[in-house]
């Protein structure tokens, strides 16, 4: 059997083979070193999640402190001061609570007009939709505690007034407004009053409650149901107010029906007697009111004979054509 002969490689070929082996070993080591352990990958994912959570927490904290610690109260106070300079109507409040969300309120609110008239409210609170205001809509309500008006010969107070309202489109001109609302009043009282024809002064008389339900449609305020329950009479209103860009020129088409309070009728039998001479419907005195807000007119026959000639409310008198004198014939 022939012996296997060892292949004799030259020194140069052996050196090349050893270099190839070293190169392969180094490549294998580099591949192993580039592999990331599973634990390290999980740690990196956790670190990314923590970073996102911290960023979100920071944004939330900023928004929270911005909305709840931003000095809106002082900003509103400065706006009231600037408005007073521009309009001449002094607006003041002892305390202002004006959060971004929730009800806004003014304590000891005062509005003083150039004419000297003053409106005071111990507490005024309201709620408005900010998104509605941005889109030129008014949707909210206002509540007033102990409202008082003082002006000229008048001094009137109400314990509470609430005013829910919705207006779908706010425009510079009120004749373009559309919406609906309601006014509720309770605990009213006259402290001072001018002399009113036939009635005299209203001083000491009370308004037990009052309510007005209305709709605004294309420049018209439609009073669907109005009621004033006072110590003098219970008065019901219904009709239309045609709005003008100048509120004082708005036209009235209102029907007011009243029934005297029994106690008042006994104390003022002179008024009760005069009331029987006025137009009545279903046992109630009914008077049409026309004209403008600044100059209302009532159509009451013979009101001048009843003492209404000096009233600020004008009366519509029928006009009579003059009768031509009969022709005379010479004898």
UniProtKB/TrEMBL annotation:
Q: Where is the composition biased (Acidic residues)?
A: 9-20
Stretches the record annotates as Disordered: 1-20, 305-331
Output the superkingdom of the source species. Answer: Bacteria
Keywords, comma-separated and alphabetical: Membrane, Transmembrane, Transmembrane helix
Q: Which residues cross the membrane?
A: 51-70
Bias (Polar residues) ranges: 305-318
Full protein name: Type II secretion system protein GspN
Q: Which gene encodes it?
A: gspN
